[in-house]
């Protein structure tokens, strides 16, 4: 990102502009919506052959972007304890060390902490000794999010923030970008002592993240799902919310990035978690080990 673009985006009311674009993307405007969808699909080289298309076609850009896939388009690897929750590129991964906790994660050579990402020291400490990986979704990718493990959703966290772009230039220019942008975190407990966090990071243009288990929570919405003055708002499940590995659990409505965090129990059981996947394209349902 060059200095002019950075200065412009810094002054831009990114959340408000993104909400306006989101409303436009959901509008059903005869002819215009169809022309824009055609341009969007062609420009970003979206593979519609693997998509589940409604009988009357997509009504707007929103429906195109949040499209489902045909059954069987993404087989879920049976022998893997942890599978990829999204389509995208695994841009970075690493171990969550106990020492120097303020420098235990990185993006484009810039370090940040798990505590800043989660905005909770207590929650971050639960994952010391575990592993993390960052997966970036391009506009052409399938943007529904699936559970990486089988287990129960036990909690979720809404972290208000701004909506910078999450492309390589922005990540390289802005320190701790993933800790600044608005995000929604899902905490899943497996049936054998494991825990994972799905950290879903919003981005410019729409910036909405929706979750299946709490349908009244949307990020970058008016009114917001919880106070924007709080550092984060925690929701605790009062009933069982079970998910099987590969089951749909959330979706991006434009954007963005997922940071997958696994605790020590999961990383110790899973041989070579994330190894040799850095910089490579990954698919939902793919096993995340060597």
With helices defined by DSSP (H or I, 4 residues minimum), what is the helix count? 9
Share in helix: 10-25%
Number of strands: 16
Order of secondary-structure elements: HHHEHEEEEHHEEEHHEEEEEEEHE
Oligomer: single chain
Poorly predicted regions are: none
User: What is the overall pLDDT average?
Assistant: 91
Structural class: alpha+beta
Q: Approximately what portion of the residues adopt beta-strand conformation?
A: 25-35%
Protein described:
With 290 residues, the protein is α+β, with helices and mostly antiparallel strands. The chain has helices at 3-11, 14-26, 32-43, 61-65, 114-118, 121-125, 168-173, 177-180, 264-269, and strands spanning 51-52, 68-69, 88-95, 105-107, 110-112, 131-136, 144-146, 151-159, 183-190, 195-201, 208-211, 233-236, 242-243, 248-253, 257-262, 280-282. Helices cover 22% and strands 26% of the residues. Strands 3, 6, 8, 9, 10, 12, 13, 15 and 16 form a nine-stranded antiparallel β-sheet that branches.
Question: Key features?
Answer:
single chain; 290 residues; alpha+beta; 3-stranded antiparallel sheet; 26% strand
Outline the secondary-structure elements.
Layout (H helix, E strand, L loop, with lengths): L2 H9 L2 H13 L5 H12 L7 E2 L8 H5 L2 E2 L18 E8 L9 E3 L2 E3 L1 H5 L2 H5 L5 E6 L7 E3 L4 E9 L8 H6 L3 H4 L2 E8 L4 E7 L6 E4 L21 E4 L5 E2 L4 E6 L3 E6 L1 H6 L10 E3 L8
Antiparallel strand pairs: 1-2, 3-6, 3-16, 4-5, 6-15, 7-14, 8-9, 8-12, 8-13, 9-10, 10-15, 11-14
């Amino acid at each position: 990102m060059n200095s002019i673009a950075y200065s412009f985006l810094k002054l831009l009311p990114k959340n408000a502009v993104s909400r306006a674009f989101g409303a436009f993307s959901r509008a059903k405007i005869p002819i215009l919506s169809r022309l824009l969808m055609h341009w969007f699909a062609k420009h970003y080289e979206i593979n519609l052959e693997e998509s589940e298309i409604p009988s009357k076609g997509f009504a707007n850009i929103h429906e195109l972007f949040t499209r489902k896939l045909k059954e069987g388009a993404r087989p879920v690897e049976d022998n893997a304890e942890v599978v990829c929750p999204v389509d995208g590129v695994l841009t970075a991964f690493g171990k969550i060390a106990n020492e120097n906790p303020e420098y235990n994660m990185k993006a484009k050579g810039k370090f940040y902490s798990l505590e800043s990402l989660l905005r909770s020291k207590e929650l971050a400490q639960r994952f010391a000794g575990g592993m993390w990986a960052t997966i970036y979704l391009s506009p052409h990718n399938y943007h529904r999010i699936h559970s990486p493990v089988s287990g129960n959703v036990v909690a979720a966290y809404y972290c208000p923030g701004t909506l910078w772009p999450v492309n390589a230039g922005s990540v390289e220019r802005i320190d701790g970008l993933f800790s600044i942008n608005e995000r929604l975190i899902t905490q899943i407990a497996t049936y054998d002592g494991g825990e994972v966090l799905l950290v879903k990071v919003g981005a410019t243009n729409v910036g909405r993240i929706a979750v299946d288990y709490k349908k009244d929570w949307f990020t970058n919405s008016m009114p917001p799902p919880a106070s924007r003055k709080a550092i984060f708002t925690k929701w605790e499940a009062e009933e069982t919310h079970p998910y099987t590995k590969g089951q749909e659990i959330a979706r991006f409505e434009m954007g963005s990035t997922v940071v997958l965090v696994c605790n020590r129990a999961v990383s110790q059981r899973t041989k070579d978690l994330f190894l040799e996947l850095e910089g490579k394209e990954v698919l939902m349902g793919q096993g995340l080990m060597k």
